[in-house]
Specification:
- This protein is of the alpha/beta class.
- It has a single domain, classed as Ribonucleoside hydrolase-like (Inosine-uridine Nucleoside N-ribohydrolase, Chain A), CATH 3.90.245.
- The chain is built from 13 helices and twelve strands.
- It has an eight-stranded mixed β-sheet, with helices on both faces. A two-stranded antiparallel sheet has the order 7-8.
- The protein is globular and about 55 Å long.
- The relative contact order is 0.16.
- The structure holds calcium ion.
- The site of calcium ion (CA) has 10 residues, from helix 2.
């Protein structure tokens, strides 16, 4: 094979993932009152907290209704996640329904891999004098609630998953058809090029529960829109100076809360990344405002490695050309408008 044919082959391969869709994603539907309906499945988590504040900002502005925040193990254990979600809502002084979900991945117990990036408690081990009122948490399991709420609001709900996909996969296994009734579905998780952040080859959310990620990607009847690790560390980077001296100078209650829980994490950003990266915030921004935030997206056929010694949890994209039976099952968000993301973050902390 000469150089020219090699280049042609590489180019064709690169285009093979992108030929189905290269346009901004359409805005979510709004009801007669112009309110979009959200379910947020999260493992809060410092970036989940900021993402939740962004969604609640849309609630206080009357632009969104959060039908449920469903909690899953991940950045920390389930009990901490529930408390962290309640603390975040208290910081915004907005209460929405909260549900407990899976305390373990589908297979095997909850295991902490490496030092906890978000602190032992998931919110940077910041000290709080009060404990949220846990009696407000619903007795219904998160997975049941996800399927029920989507069925109660057909074609209206945007599901945003910013943690391991355990709750979502359980919901799919119990009620596969509910995913057909989603308006849209966003996932922060997975990677494109075998570069990981929890292992060499895997992104944290997928590595935490690879079986759940596989079920979700291959069995959801609404293709999820993927906010990958690759996207976040290449296009959602802000300087630490911006984080500390622009966002960090906001004086609202939610801004003081975020500064407090992120204090330790910022030191980790300085040490490991050199910049401030957003992850879950990108998924929520894209879901709330896809017309502005998402500037390029492409359909792809994705799976998840379950067995690899080094690659368990890695997202796999089928890119061979001669795969006529390939079924695209995800939409990869390729490019975002960083300014739109920045403005949404800054607005949420006003
Ligand atoms: Ca998360």
């Amino acid at each position: 094979m000469n150089i020219s044919s090699v280049l042609t082959s590489v180019l064709k391969r690169a285009l093979s993932r992108t030929k189905w869709c290269r346009r901004p994603l359409p805005p979510p539907p709004r009801d007669a009152q112009n309110v979009m309906k959200l379910i947020i499945d999260c493992d809060a988590g410092v970036d989940d907290a900021m993402a939740l504040i962004m969604a609640l900002d849309y609630v206080r502005k009357g632009k969104a209704q959060v039908l449920a925040v469903t909690c899953v193990q991940g950045n920390t254990g389930l009990d901490n996640v529930v408390v962290n979600v309640l603390r975040t809502m208290n910081a915004m002084d907005i209460q929405v329904p909260v549900y407990r979900g899976a305390k373990d991945p589908l297979i095997g117990p909850y295991i902490r891999h490496g030092p906890p990036f978000h602190g032992e408690d998931g919110l940077g081990d910041a000290h709080f004098d009060t404990t949220p009122d846990l009696s407000v948490v619903s007795s219904e399991h998160a997975s049941l609630a996800i399927a029920r709420l989507v069925r109660d609001n057909p074609d209206e709900v945007t599901l945003i998953a910013t943690g391991p996909l355990t709750n979502v996969a359980l919901a799919i296994k119990m009620d596969p058809d509910f995913t057909k009734l989603l308006h849209s579905f966003y996932i922060m998780g997975g990677n494109l090029n075998g570069r990981g952040n929890i292992t060499t080859c895997a992104e944290f959310n997928f590595h935490n529960d690879p079986e759940a990620a596989l079920v979700t990607l291959t069995e959801s009847l609404t293709p999820p829109r993927m906010i990958t690790f690759d996207l976040c560390i290449s296009q959602a980077l802000f300087s630490l100076d911006w984080r500390k001296n622009k966002l960090g100078q906001k004086a609202t209650r939610q801004a003081r809360f975020q500064n407090k829980i992120e204090d330790t994490l910022l030191k980790a950003f300085e040490k490991y990344y050199g910049d401030y990266s957003m992850w879950d915030q990108v998924a929520v921004a894209a879901a709330l405002n896809p017309g502005q935030v998402v500037t390029e997206a492409s359909s792809a056929c994705a799976s998840v490695e379950l067995a690899g010694q080094h690659t368990r949890g890695q997202m796999i994209i089928e890119s061979r050309l001669r795969q006529d039976d390939r079924k695209n099952n995800v939409v990869i968000v390729d490019k975002i408008d960083k300014t739109a993301l920045e403005n949404m973050v800054l607005d949420a902390f006003d």
